[in-house]
Design brief:
The structure is a homotrimer of 668-residue chains. The first copy, chain A, is α/β, with parallel strands linked by helices. Chain A has three domains: 295 residues, Glycosidases (TIM Barrel); 199 residues, 3-Layer(aba) Sandwich (Rossmann fold), CATH 3.40.50.880; 57 residues, Golgi alpha-mannosidase II (Immunoglobulin-like), CATH 2.60.40.1180. Chain A has a ten-stranded mixed sheet with strand order 10-9-11-12-17-16-15-13-14-18, with helices on both faces. Chain A has an eight-stranded parallel beta barrel with strand order 1-2-3-4-5-6-7-8, surrounded by five helices. In chain A, helix 10 crosses helix 14. Chain A contains 17 helices and 25 strands. In chain A, a hairpin with a 5-residue loop joins strand 22 and strand 23. The longest helix of chain A has 29 residues. Chains A, B, C: This is Beta-galactosidase.
């Protein structure tokens, strides 16, 4: 598959006189594809059952004439006013939120019968109408799905059915949710409902199940759109654009019926975010690739400072737009579609800037986009069908993430923030890393990190232990193995079902939160730690680091256990990033995974390959000039010529290097 | 008109035995006028249609006997319980607020039919009853009008009518509001309504129009009271007391049918506010004078520490009460009525202190009031019919202020705060300044500052450009010319319709928010700037200051353009106050406007004149002794005798100087 | 009465197989008593009128067999779902909160007819069923009563009745509440209601009365339970567990029909709280003892880190659990029941840790509990029937506390925080102190502190003045004598009715809030003060300290007045703690109350006595070793042997010393 470059474009928002001049400029700048129509329901179906696709036909035809392909969005994120007014069940019933806010967006309940019906009708209408259109290459379902904690009667009813399928009787519900506590036993299904209140005193078993149900509601709702499209367009691709991976949603299930994942990528342009932002961006991209374990698209790539319902961001530094677009490709994007062609002059999103300003005079941002598009076009053939192949992985778990949001343990602790620290440590060492959710193929990896797997079901624990047994290298962290699948506490010493594999038992824990503690390793080097200290009894493991303060001074802070053919590390605390660097570098070297120990701050390296062809991306995501040492000479595909012992990168400079197969930067 | 000194007094709150002793003490202290009855509806009409004015007759007669005049308030800010209980449409429907809170205040919808009916009845009753009373000199409508974001059916219905008058068809509404965005097209008038939610995702065109409508609702509601009073009392004055000018309300329209404006003035008594508070107070007074471009009253002047529903303020420093009362006069007040005679012993306002404490023992604050009243009495004849005549003006714009509140652009930016910086710079240079809203007479001024005129309609832009064309000096700042009147973005380079006059085009902008940047002027002097940096292309202007950092280092930060007979400055950023001082002093000198460059911090100077007679007020609004240099000898009207080369002022000291006509302090 | 050691245990939450092994371990560890059933309504009455007590019979019998006594809770804090579903009037109508949240707790209106009916039924059922059970020794009403600002129709109706009893007519209500302000006059009882809004603009007289009514509603509601139990079990004790004394509730009235008070004690385990926490804990225990002026129980003593709906606390330092349990005994506890035997594995309270963790492996915390239980068992006979006898008291006032919460005066001021400073000063000087609420026996004390008695009714003022008259020593602080009982301001100079006794009049006040001021005493020593400065006119008092800044420099800051046989101090400001130490030490010495001026930080001393036997508790509530000087040799009851001139205490070390009668530590 070639690498696509595109823009998001809203013909319905602009005077028709602008369409053609926009298309001309797009063509000239190298645009391959335009996404459109994902918010246009009120224009496509101005009144119930009266469709007006003529304007869209005209727009698609026009772009088609300029050889620009079209991805069509199903416009269900913005139900029109006639729909919400005549079928108010469309509107979700969200605690602390209005029952209706037409003209806004996202105001639709996934379990609403009317919403499901009219979704099917508009999706089928569009799918059928455009099934033979040569310019239409694919579809996007809805827009940026997220979980709704809706408590309308249709959601409640759906939840009862979901519970009946899962638990059959109320007796089982009462047992699995532990309702004996605080006289919470249900004696009738109708008592299972939601309340307009803070959830902090609620039963965590109930709350986790409700989120599971709502996550599945999204998936079931999307299927209506998928069915409608597939029926008429078996050849065209279907994707969905996720707005941010930290959002707890079972993305794996959401993307299961789709062809590939898409992501809306807005790296922060503020200078005070440059230290962390390139890394959290890398995680989001790796996570998106993990949704289906394959390449993906970016459906909204940063094209100008966001704003509107938040303060307007800083103007991107010269090179920022291009460099971050290359970052998307470097981590697996096969399509990069910029949001948006031109800033809106009307509506709530006026200050979410596009590539071109309200003035319609193309400026610096547009020129950078044009440069990027040209570069991609030049390398498209070389990069086509290349993929990332990594030997280390981080295991992400939806239930643990959700359960820890419901019961956050201590101030400062956040499951996703922990993931960021670990992932960043890999990236700073130049180690390619996957973020996976499925434990059925752990053997693909030499090293797997399992952070805070709070909810740990027996099958998962077995798979992890089995991975170690057969030679894998595991790292686990505190708050692992605390809960059963039903979100009740496991009645055995922590880390619960992984206690044997890890060779330790937690005898007590000290939730230190934002208090800073220290521990030292075998060399006596001191590291900070925070949030949580487990106190360990080593059963079969041996200690490799020890607490250096408080009443448990000298007791183990990190342990390693030989288990079968493999080894299992337990971090009893949350160490500062420097310890992760030290530990991961050591382990990677022992596994012969290439490590680049002196990669400059802000520089990222990753590799896409196709058979013997290997392309290495070197990105300087900082405002300073950076120099990278090379292990051997490479061919420079963007800068032209050869790079021998070092490569100097301008601020936000990018290079793509081509090397002989099996040669990586940093490999001795 | 003489200068009136008065107090706010609530006979209904006190045992009748106190009335006469209060009147005796007032008389003795020099009180000319008492405001009363503005909260007394439940005493004036204890039940529907049953009026009891006997107690008020008695009170007015009593004060009349002591030659104390009365201003009567129409008590509609506090609808009584019988009214809200039997006619609940009186109560506004405010998002996030209760539908009813009797015993509180402000609980009335301006569009409620019942409220309008019973307002007319009580206003007519009072107007007719007191039409011939010799003690009653004037009237106050309601109390401290403010905008209500009410969404009751009467407001919504009124809004539909307002829209139909303005736009005629839904088609035009959809076009003017740009509802194509996010499928927000209205297909029926009934769909135009308000929602119980944050407005941040709403259409800004809709939101601005709703505020315009509500602002006009206040004006229409007030007219009921004005009509009732005028019908019976064509000779008595009518005013209204505004509580705070930053409040976005179209004050010009509100005061149009009234005789003069009034203001409720509570300068902050905390020592940590002394650096800014005297200046924000000066702006409020100048703004009040600008409502009708004429002298005004202060209807509630600080008489003791406010408190009650906020922490009680610091006790005023000795001299504070007198000095701030003189500040009111110095900037155009012809009446100063203190809030309040004595602190309430009951109700929610117990700790909003009056001149006399709960103990009813007059203390230090009361003595200061007595001194002030004596001084005013002594100068009353000299000051009568004097006015302020200024050569510089700041243009305030309701639509821009409101639109910027709806879309605040960046953290730290606030339209009114910008006004404060600019106005303060004038005051610190001793330059008299008007705050105007009307562009039809700009030629009256030598220098006009137009801060962030975000919403800029063609007629206004033409008037401003025409002013420059004919020789005026203009200063404009960022975020000018961004929006059409309908709050859609203007599709041309910023500063939009003033781009030609200012000789610049904004090619890009960097919303730097609270990050600090610097720029330097022609001398190389460095200044801080913040919030927003426009990047300029100079078309016909020349640069006079340049950015000294970031990727646009060396590009223009301030420009000046010769346009017709005049000159137009564009500040591409928000500079620190020191730059304003430098620029305004330079420009004022070039215009031969007197500048006092070494006025001590906290000292303010202003001038009232009547023909040849000029009175200069010198106020030390600080806790330290301050010395002011004089350009020539003056007669001291408060201190007695002559002030020759310098004038020394005690902490919170005040002097009124009389000089020969056309001689001003600071004039060389 | 012996000293009881116990645990809170919830048989309904655990598999029946665990009961007996739990009982065995309890027995072994020295548990005397178990509290149970206070949340078990849904298990005791699974459906309306169908009771299931068999499981509880079995549990009680089992514990009885192990000679473990049982305290039974009436489970009314957690109404079951069948009750709230079928009789929704049970649910309170709380502003800003959901009308129903079953499965949570505290969701019951005290004035609900259904709640009152079903409370009577379940209480009678339990009382009758267990009246002859030898293991059952006492009862707990409900759980942790608190005030509900419920505005359901039953509460409103009850309030009307309460008002009619108190005021008879609406005319009197209007007068007492001062409704003339802001047209708030009531013309019909139905207008007296509550509103869904912030209370900040409400009438403070109304608000105080509503809190009085709701406080009495709790008392009346509890009486249903008391009557049911007494009828069948005249021999068993009844108590109630208060969760935190700062809560404004008329505890004296609540405990009046009960045998003794109980308290739920959770000292903060975080190291950064060690400076203040041992002292605020001491205040809570002294306050609990003051509820009935007699010994009490702790019904929930800290057994592990709380958490769940807040961040999990730090693990307790070694010795912490034992030391704080001894603190409870040292200040009057005759029973110490730990919360809870084992952490819950289900429900919202999973992370409110018990003595034993989820793993069910007893650890360090459990061992500490076992040590404590053994120590108590050894000293039980010696300590039985001992009481505290103190010569100084602080007067707490519900109405003042409540009224100051309604009108907080200045930022930073909090009535209860003021109490903490004063109480801590006594504790740091080793002076035993009572916290009393009743002024009818002030003559029992040599020294009485009356902090900020904002609401001061004539009878109370007379009692306080009479106490001084007859030789007492009084210390009063600012904001005393401000309000009548109806929460209107008193129309006479402050401190109102105590002005004569204190020999001062407040001529003015300066609410300095968080600004720091200073004053100096007769030696010239400078002290900080904050929040509030009264400016005094001394009528008969003499000054002993003076302000050293601002415009009132040199005027009195502290005064003393000879009044009859006694002396009355007035602190015109809120001084730093050092001044309290100085003043209290001086006054205590003058009264021959023993003072220990060099007690190390964190060490607390108190004394229980029975006739001639005196037991002195010395507690080191810190993480450092501390040494205490002794005035003469003592017998060590925990450490064994003699302590002669000094006593060294380990971190969280505890000692009980026995001395000859009338000999106290610190007495010269």
């Amino acid at each position: 598959m070639m690498i696509w470059v595109g823009v998001d474009y809203y013909p319905e928002q602009w005077d028709r006189s602008l369409w053609e001049q926009d298309a001309v400029l797009m063509k000239e700048a190298g645009v391959h594809v335009v996404r459109m129509a994902e918010f246009a329901w009120s224009r496509l179906e101005p009144q119930e059952g009266r469709y007006d696709l003529a304007w869209l036909d005209e727009a698609i035809d026009l772009f088609g004439r300029y050889e620009i392909a079209v991805v069509l969005g199903i416009p269900t994120m913005t139900p029109p006013l006639w729909l919400t007014q005549h079928y108010p069940d469309v509107l979700p019933d969200l605690p602390g939120q209005p029952s209706s806010h037409p003209g806004v967006r996202g105001h639709r309940c996934y379990n609403s019968p009317s919403m499901r019906k009219y979704t099917r009708l508009i999706a089928e209408k569009l799918a059928e109408h455009y099934k033979d259109h040569p310019a239409v290459i694919g579809w996007q379902t809805d827009n940026e799905f997220s979980l709704h904690m809706c408590r309308c009667k249709h959601c409640i009813h759906g939840f009862h059915q979901w519970l009946q399928e899962r638990y059959e009787t109320l007796e089982v519900v009462n047992r699995e949710w532990g309702t004996a506590v605080w006289s919470g036993a249900y004696t009738d299904w109708s008592q299972i409902t939601l309340y307009e209140t803070s959830e902090q005193h609620f039963n965590p078993s109930f709350l986790l199940d409700y989120r599971r149900f709502q996550s599945e509601s999204v998936v079931r709702y999307q299927q209506i759109q998928v069915d409608a499209i597939r029926q008429h367009n078996p050849e065209q691709f279907i994707t969905h654009n996720t707005w941010s991976a930290p959002l707890p949603l079972e993305h794996e299930k959401l993307y299961e019926p789709l062809d590939f994942a898409s992501f809306d990528y807005y790296p922060a342009s503020s200078p005070d975010k440059t230290a962390t932002n390139p890394y959290s961006g890398a995680l989001l991209l790796d996570r998106t690739r993990g949704f289906k374990n394959r390449n993906f698209w970016v459906m909204e790539q940063f094209g100008g400072p966001p704003g509107s319902w938040m303060p307007i961001w800083r103007s991107p530094y010269p090179g920022f737009i291009r460099a971050y677009a290359w970052q998307s490709i470097s981590r697996g994007a096969d399509g990069v579609v910029f949001f948006r062609w031109r800033s809106a002059i009307a509506g709530a999103e006026q200050f979410w800037h596009g590539l071109i300003d309200h003035s319609n005079v193309p400026g610096r941002r547009f020129e950078e986009f044009r440069t990027f598009a040209g570069e991609v076009r030049a390398l498209s053939e070389q990069l086509s069908d290349t993929v990332l192949v990594n030997r280390a992985a981080i295991l992400y778990d939806f239930a643990s993430h959700t359960a820890l949001q419901l019961q956050p343990q201590v101030e400062g602790f956040d499951y996703y923030e922990e993931l960021k620290v670990i992932h960043r440590s890999f990236v700073k060492l130049g180690i390619g890393i996957d973020v996976i959710t499925d434990v059925s193929h752990l053997e693909r990896y030499d090293l797997v990190v399992v952070p805070s797997m709070f909810v740990l079901e027996p099958g998962t624990a077995d798979a992890i232990a089995g991975y170690v047994q057969q030679g894998g290298l595991l790292i686990a962290t505190p708050r692992t193995g605390v809960k059963e699948g039903n979100n009740q506490c496991i009645m055995r010493p922590l880390p619960g079902p992984l206690s044997e594999c890890l060779g330790v038992q937690v005898t007590e824990y000290d939730p230190i939160a934002l208090d800073r503690h220290t521990f030292h390793d075998e060399d006596g080097t001191l590291y900070h730690c925070s949030l949580w200290n487990d106190l360990l009894k080593l059963t079969t493991a041996r200690a490799v680091a020890w607490y250096s303060g408080d009443f448990y001074e000298g007791t183990p802070a990190v342990s390693v256990n030989a288990w079968g053919e493999g080894q299992a590390y337990y971090l009893a605390t949350f160490p500062e990033e420097a310890y992760w660097h030290r530990l991961l570098a050591e382990l990677a070297r022992s596994l012969h995974i290439p490590v680049i120990s002196q990669l400059p701050e802000g520089v990222q390296i990753s590799t896409r390959q196709r058979g013997e062809a290997v392309y290495t991306f070197v990105l300087n995501l900082s405002r300073e000039v950076k120099t990278v040492k090379l292990d051997h000479p490479y061919e420079r595909l963007l800068g032209r010529g050869q790079a021998s012992s070092t490569l100097e990168l301008e601020p936000y400079g990018v290079e793509v290097l081509q090397s002989a197969p099996q040669k990586h930067i940093g490999q001795a």
